[in-house]
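Hi there, hope your week has been kind to you so far. Thanks so much in advance, here it is.
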Amino acid sequence: MTTAGTPDETTVTPGGRTADASVETIQREMTAFARRARASAGRMHPELSLVSYTLLGHLEERDGCRATDLAAHYALDKSTVSRQVSALERTGLVERRVDPDDHRVQVLHLTEAGRRILAQVTESRRAAVRERLADWSEEDLARFSAYLERYNAWPDAPADGDRDRDPGPGHVRWTGTH
């Protein structure tokens, strides 16, 4: 262990792996997970990419927001979000409304069609995940969900894009290239 209490590359984990080997396995499996999610998005709804699905979900959770808020939340370039939002507007899934508190600002909201499509795709995704995890015990499911929440609780990168900052004690820096 390092002085901060995190495993170093020579620490052997309970499964008999070194910390580096575990991190490499996690990184490889997360990449496979992301590829599978992107590939399955088209099967869930042909016109709805994984990015579009994610943006619609965020708009639903927040009951609308500005495009700049979407870009900041997902650390995406504003032009990327603009293209995605334009496509969602053209398909009638998203609409712009003037912010009642500041008439200079436009807020993105789901249309009824957007809500319907999002609900359909969400249920299809849930069914696919349920099927994949059908033989997992409740304990395994609880542990896996807790680990995912813990992993995703990592703070976002600083706004200035300084990804080389020191993450502080207790964190492993990702350097894999897979």
